[in-house]
């Protein structure tokens, strides 16, 4: 007689814990190609988003004050843990995105490599982006980058793992904390990523992941006054999401808005396999300039 | 405008007792002095110099300028401090002090002539019973490197010869090595040596030689130490070391006397000396006196310029304002005319 | 020209009046818009620019309508397409150098005009605004042919946006113009700029400078007017990028207006800076820094140190020294070289200052001013200090934008940081302490784009300026100031 297997229960990832949605709702997730039922995912609500922002805010000062070296180590550790979960990630990406085994392997490899790439930036971008300013006077004057704070991230709808990593890693490497709304239809790799994060050294609250529909959650994040910035990448292809409205709401506390790729009002999902530049990292940085007189 | 140079007829205070009282200690030790002096607020060099530069841009109304030039003349300690000084030269200087401008007898007289101790009698005799004082440098001026016995003898000798004022130098070596108690004691002892024994005493100017103290923090500490030890005036320089009387250094000292009055109710004078050569410079200093310490210091009782060539430039400006025409060096009578003109 | 009352009599010194001569300024009775290299009449109702110190009408200025703005944007587009985008960086730089030189040569004229139109003391327009404006052109001129070395998006080939719309405030009219135009032109953009309606005159004089420098027509266009003119620039579809300095309220309106478009924006907005004084501060310089922090330019400064946070142990002493120092501040004729504090820029601003200070009093803070005499005509406000202020008072939260200081106290560095950051703004902050490690710790903790330690209100073309949080985004000045003017990858 065949063994009755133990089905996994998919939950949210908030403040380092795996709570159910406060709404108690879940929704069915199907494989991209075959349309087979994969799992029930928690359907995050605005209150889950609120709790996630609270967790992200609480974690932010500590994460930002960790040494750059330490943040690099932590991000690198995520890559290590993902490597150890590679078969599971490959399977989930295959199911989610309908890829061939080889293509899914490649996507997972790139996702892991992307953590490594960003991990290496942790103690370098400040030097690249800032430095001493030669002011015309007897002053020491230096500009350095600091994290913006709490960043809301609409993760890409299509690229369920590589795209997801490509938006999370550049935001957190500098000391921001994030509240991520996953791809609505392809949330399962994000949940496994949560488990990787939870078992690596990423402090609780640095990354908070909410599965569900951006159309329902994103407006609350874009209007949330304790959110400092928002990445609208996942607005591309998200059902019922008007990124213009989200940007408009973001103006209430002058959030830094990273618009979706595309031209005009169109939002398109970029090719995440391209080697990134620094723009997603710099989008969530502030430049602080400090002056001090030089005297005897 | 006051041109009084009346000497306060107070006798030497017991500086040590007062210092103990102010510092709140039962015994005045070097450590107590160090703690007190190092507890003074620091001076930010850039901010201090910016403030001084700002004061230097004040523009003075013509009538005020006339008043300021006369005031500046009345604040001068007309000085000759050279190895080559002769009795003749000192008499010439005294004559200049008595009649600064023979072409205009309304010109005020400088506050004092300032000479080496051995010239005091000559200066005193030449000045007679005029209101021009005789100031003598003492205490092994300018280096101050002599035994205490010599320094005190130097002082007493000048006082005995009739000096109204004594310009002493502090031991910068002791100060820079942190031996504040030695500096304090020397000042306090010289203060006593200024006593004439008849209930009056010569006023004591304490030369800190700020060019050797280098930092504004040191200038501030030396100012407070000098006031604590009983100096009647704090003075920037001997004139032998550069930089001498800069505006920022004088500003620090003016802040010190202002704050000292807040603390004790007593006024102490300030004397920048060396390097102030033009009327324009002098007026910048007076503006600084006015805005930092206040109007009470705008008298030669509490502010002096130690200078030699400044007087002639003030006289040139004075003539220019009186006659309406620019004047020249040949219209300024001088017993030792400068080749710089 | 100004009925002058004697200031506080500190001494027998009568400073001044030493008024700077107005003769260097050749004011026309009316000014048009500067579009495509020429002055043209605007379609709207002409408005008057007055001297806030005397309420004297200085000139009539055209109001640009939507059609005028459209013409300006089209001129800028044509100039961009046909001339400016094809020109080498080296040549663009040479035009900027020319402008910088002319500004230096005509510095006195600009300074006097700025002081007339704005009300700021001549010593500030002469020593700060105009020299810095020229310096910004010099600095950016040098970048024009070196952009590939500036680590900008686009790397070896950074691309300008095209036509940039710029709207600037009345507090530093020429300086803000320079902050905006110099980097925009250096990076290869063309410009439509609107000066503030109360201070349009130096921008119009700058238009003459553009002519004098033979700058190709359309590269710089200057349209005058009030809010509706600014709105027309913001909404114009031909604008690729916006740069705005002004209130947070208007900044938010702009952010909303461009939402969902591909227009970029740099916003340099309000502030409520904490100037934090510890008990080991260099006290005399700290007092100067407090004074400079809030009374410089009548407090019409977005980064003004409007909240003095002083350690409780020295609060009384700082207050005493501060008040004594304020007694020597000279308020009056802005053209007088001895004037420290000039006129409030407009009746509207004066009303706002009065309303907020009245609120401060009614909410229980203790009000003190230096009691100086004020001229009969014009808009004036005495240097004012509120003590006993708490974080919940309106005068501790709202930007007053005037010569009004709110004094609060703290006990520990942590409390100072918490109070300093307890505001939606984050433009600047000041720290006064002789302890180096504390400066660096504080600087790390403060959520502000510019931190002045043992100094305040210092500006330099090489030094990036801009805010955190609701003080806006983007930086102006330095290499950082070029970034908003080139295309990013997103």
Task: Give the topology, please.
The complex is a heterotrimer of chains A (296), B (341) and C (490).
Chain A lengths: L25 E5 L6 E6 L3 H20 L2 H17 L1 H12 L3 H21 L3 H5 L1 E2 L6 E9 L2 E5 L7 H11 L4 E5 L6 H12 L7 E4 L3 H10 L5 E3 L11 H8 L5 E3 L20 H4 L2 E9 L3
Parallel strand pairs in A: 5-6, 5-8, 6-7, 8-9
Antiparallel strand pairs in A: 1-2, 3-4, 4-10
Chain B lengths: L14 H9 L6 H9 L6 H11 L6 H13 L1 E4 L7 H12 L13 E5 L3 H8 L5 E6 L9 H13 L4 E5 L2 H5 L3 H14 L9 E5 L2 H4 L2 H13 L4 E3 L11 H18 L4 E3 L7 H15 L11 E3 L2 H14 L18
Parallel strand pairs in B: 1-2, 1-8, 2-3, 3-4, 4-5, 5-6, 6-7
Chain C lengths: L29 E2 L1 E3 L2 E3 L6 E4 L6 E5 L4 H19 L4 H17 L1 H12 L3 H22 L19 E5 L5 H14 L3 E5 L6 H12 L7 E3 L4 H9 L5 E5 L2 H10 L6 E5 L5 E4 L5 H13 L11 E5 L3 H12 L20 H16 L3 E4 L14 E4 L6 H4 L6 E7 L2 H9 L6 E5 L3 H10 L4 E4 L18 E2 L17
Parallel strand pairs in C: 1-5, 6-7, 6-9, 7-8, 9-10, 11-12, 11-16, 12-15, 14-15, 16-17
Antiparallel strand pairs in C: 2-3, 4-5, 10-18, 13-14
In short:
Chain A contains ten helices and ten strands. By secondary structure, chain A is α/β, with parallel strands linked by helices. Chain A has a single domain, classed as Aldehyde Dehydrogenase, Chain A, domain 1.
Key traits:
heterotrimer; A: about 300 residues; alpha/beta; Aldehyde Dehydrogenase, Chain A, domain 1; three-stranded antiparallel beta sheet; B: about 350 residues; TIM Barrel; 14 helices; about 45% helix; about 10% strand; disordered N terminus; schiff base (chain B); EC 4.1.2.4 (chain B); deoxyribose-phosphate aldolase activity (chain B)
């Amino acid at each position: 007689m065949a063994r009755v297997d133990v089905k996994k229960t998919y939950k949210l990832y908030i403040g380092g814990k795996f709570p159910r949605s406060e709404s108690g709702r879940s929704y069915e997730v199907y494989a991209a190609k075959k349309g087979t039922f994969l799992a029930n995912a928690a359907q995050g609500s605005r209150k889950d988003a609120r709790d996630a922002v609270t967790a992200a805010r609480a974690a932010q000062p500590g994460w930002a004050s960790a040494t750059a070296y330490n943040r690099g180590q932590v991000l690198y550790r995520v890559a290590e843990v993902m490597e150890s979960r590679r078969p599971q990630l490959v399977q989930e990406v295959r199911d989610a995105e309908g890829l061939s085994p080889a293509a899914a392997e490649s996507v997972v490899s790139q996702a892991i490599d992307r953590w490594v790439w960003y991990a290496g930036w942790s103690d370098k971008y400040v030097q690249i982006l800032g430095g001493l300013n030669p002011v015309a006077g007897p002053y020491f004057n230096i500009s350095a980058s600091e994290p913006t704070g709490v960043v809301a991230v609409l993760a890409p709808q299509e690229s369920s793992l590589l795209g997801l990593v490509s938006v999370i890693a550049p935001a957190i490497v500098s000391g921001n904390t994030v509240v991520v709304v996953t791809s609505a239809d392809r949330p399962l790799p994000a949940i496994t990523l949560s488990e990787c994060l939870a078992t690596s050294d990423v402090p609780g609250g640095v990354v908070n992941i909410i599965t569900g529909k951006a159309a329902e959650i994103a407006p609350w994040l874009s209007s949330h006054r304790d959110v400092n910035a928002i990445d609208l990448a996942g607005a591309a292809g998200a059902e019922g999401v008007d990124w213009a409205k989200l940007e408009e709401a973001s103006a209430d506390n002058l959030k830094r808005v990273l618009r979706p790729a595309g031209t005009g009002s169109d939002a398109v999902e970029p090719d995440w396999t391209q080697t990134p530049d620094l723009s997603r990292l710099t989008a969530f940085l502030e430049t602080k300039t400090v002056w001090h007189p030089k005297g005897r | 405008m006051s041109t009084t140079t009346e000497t306060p007829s107070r006798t030497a205070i017991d500086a040590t007792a007062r210092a103990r009282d102010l510092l709140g200690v039962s015994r005045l030790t070097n450590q107590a002095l160090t703690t007190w002096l190092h507890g003074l607020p620091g001076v930010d060099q850039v901010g201090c110099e910016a403030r001084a530069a700002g004061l230097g841009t004040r523009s003075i109304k013509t009538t005020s300028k006339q008043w300021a030039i006369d005031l500046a003349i009345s604040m001068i300690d007309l000085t000759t401090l050279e190895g080559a000084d002769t009795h003749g030269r000192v008499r010439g200087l005294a004559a200049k002090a008595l009649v600064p401008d023979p072409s205009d007898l309304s010109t005020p007289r400088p506050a004092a002539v300032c000479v080496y101790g051995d010239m005091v009698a000559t200066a005193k005799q030449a000045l007679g019973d005029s209101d021009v004082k005789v100031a003598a440098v003492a205490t092994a001026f300018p280096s101050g490197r002599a035994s205490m016995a010599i320094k005190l003898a130097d002082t007493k000798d000048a006082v005995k010869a009739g000096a109204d004022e004594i310009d002493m130098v502090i031991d910068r070596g002791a100060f820079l090595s942190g031996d504040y108690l030695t500096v304090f004691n020397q000042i306090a002892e010289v203060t006593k040596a200024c006593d004439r024994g008849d209930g009056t005493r010569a006023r004591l100017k304490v030369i800190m030689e700020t060019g050797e103290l280098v930092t504004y923090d040191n200038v501030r500490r030396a100012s407070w130490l000098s006031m604590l030890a009983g100096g009647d005036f704090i003075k920037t320089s001997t004139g032998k070391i550069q930089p001498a009387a800069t505006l920022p250094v004088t500003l620090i000292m003016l802040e010190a006397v202002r704050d000292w009055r807040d603390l004790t109710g007593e006024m102490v004078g300030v004397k920048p000396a060396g390097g102030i050569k033009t009327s324009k410079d002098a007026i910048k200093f007076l503006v600084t006196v006015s805005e930092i310490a206040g109007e009470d210091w705008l008298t030669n009782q509490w502010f002096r310029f130690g200078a030699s060539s400044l007087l002639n430039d003030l006289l040139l400006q004075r003539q220019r304002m009186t006659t309406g025409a620019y004047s020249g060096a040949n219209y300024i009578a001088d017993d030792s005319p400068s080749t710089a003109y | 020209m100004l009925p002058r009352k004697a200031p506080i009599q500190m001494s027998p010194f009568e400073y001044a009046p030493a008024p700077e001569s107005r003769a260097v300024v050749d004011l026309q009775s009316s000014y048009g818009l500067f579009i495509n290299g020429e002055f043209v009449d605007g379609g709207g109702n002409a408005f008057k620019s007055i001297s806030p110190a005397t309420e004297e009408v200085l000139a009539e200025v055209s109001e640009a309508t939507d059609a005028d703005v459209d013409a300006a944007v089209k001129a800028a587009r044509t100039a961009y397409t046909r001339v400016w985008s094809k020109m080498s960086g080296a040549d663009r730089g040479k035009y900027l150098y020319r402008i910088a030189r002319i500004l230096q040569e005509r510095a006195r004229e600009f300074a006097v005009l700025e002081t007339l139109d704005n009300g700021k003391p001549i010593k500030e327009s002469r020593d700060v605004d105009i020299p810095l404006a020229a310096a910004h052109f010099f600095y950016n001129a040098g970048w024009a042919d070196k952009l590939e070395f500036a680590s900008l998006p686009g790397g070896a080939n950074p691309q300008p946006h095209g036509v940039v719309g710029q709207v600037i405030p009345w507090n530093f009219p020429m300086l803000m113009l320079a902050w905006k135009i110099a980097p925009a032109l250096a990076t290869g953009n063309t410009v439509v700029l609107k000066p503030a309606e109360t201070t349009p005159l130096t921008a119009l004089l700058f238009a003459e400078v553009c002519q004098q420098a033979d700058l190709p027509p359309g590269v710089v266009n200057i349209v005058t007017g009030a809010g509706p003119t600014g709105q027309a620039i913001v909404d114009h579809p031909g604008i690729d990028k916006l740069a705005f300095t002004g209130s947070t309220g208007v900044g938010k309106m702009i952010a909303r207006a461009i939402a969902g478009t591909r227009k970029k924006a740099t916003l340099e907005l309000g502030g409520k800076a904490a100037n934090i004084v510890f008990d080991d501060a260099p006290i005399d310089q700290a007092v100067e820094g407090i004074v400079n922090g809030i009374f410089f330019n009548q407090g019409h400064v977005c980064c003004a140190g409007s909240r003095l946070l002083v350690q409780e142990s020295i609060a009384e002493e700082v207050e005493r020294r501060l008040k004594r120092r304020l007694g020597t501040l000279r308020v009056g004729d802005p053209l007088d070289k001895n004037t420290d504090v000039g006129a409030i820029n407009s009746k509207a601003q004066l009303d706002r200052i009065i309303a907020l200070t009245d609120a401060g009093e009614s909410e229980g803070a203790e009000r003190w001013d230096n009691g100086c005499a004020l001229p009969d005509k014009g808009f004036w406000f005495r240097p004012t200090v509120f003590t006993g202020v708490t974080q919940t008072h309106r005068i501790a939260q709202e930007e007053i934008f005037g010569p009004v200081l709110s004094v609060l106290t703290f006990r520990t560095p942590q409390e100072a940081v918490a109070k300093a950051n307890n505001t939606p703004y984050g433009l600047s902050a000041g720290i006064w302490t002789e302890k180096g490690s504390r400066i660096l710790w504080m600087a790390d903790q403060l959520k502000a784009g510019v931190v002045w330690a043992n100094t305040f209100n210092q500006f330099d073309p090489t030094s990036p300026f801009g805010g955190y949080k609701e003080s806006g985004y983007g930086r102006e000045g330095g290499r950082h100031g070029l970034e908003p003017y080139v295309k990013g990858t997103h």
